[in-house]
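#struct-pred
JK: can someone run the complex with fe (iii) ion? inputs below
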Amino acid sequence: MTEHRERLERSRLKISLTLMHRTTILLFITTVVLFACSAGQPPSKFSSSEAMNEHSVSNPYCSRTDTTKLDLPDSVWKKVLSPEVYEVARKAGTERAFTGKLWDFEGIGTYYCAACGNALFRSDAKFASTCGWPSFFETVRPASVEYRADMAFGMSRTEVLCGRCGAHLGHVFDDGSPPTGKRFCMNSIVLDFEPDTAAGQ
Ligand code: FE
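RT: done, structure tokens with the ligand placed:
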């Protein structure tokens, strides 16, 4: 009788240990799977549809519909723009030719200011230019941009600024494409491209 009881106890103990072992393995597998999934995902801050608009994701001043002028201090822009966009938009930097994401891009859609969301150019005003920067022959609206004389570097040029937020976008020249003959020579980094939807085409 005692021997039978001991066998029973040993059997119970064996079952308990097996169950514990299986639970531990299951927990381990779950942890590994969860970690692998999170490591393989892009940062949750950006959805795939925002891939081309990543510079304005955490910017509360960015709007595709509000055309009210923005007059914000430099300290605010420094907080809401990425360092790359800030350098061009607020410090009049210039990206190197043939290095930007849009100089030879041919998507159909609209180009917006990467600092404030203001509509700047349509893709049908973009033309193939050999200069190495995205080039357009006209803006979406006359008020999309503003102009300022730029005498820097011993040159006489016309600077192009966003009509809503004053961001530096690039320069405009008279060696462009018909029908205007203008060449709005822009920095890719300060442009956000939004493709037309199937319904809107
Ligand atoms: Fe802007």
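RT: quick notes.
Confidence is low (pLDDT under 50) at residues 23-53.
DSSP finds three helices and nine strands in the chain.
JK: thanks, will look after standup
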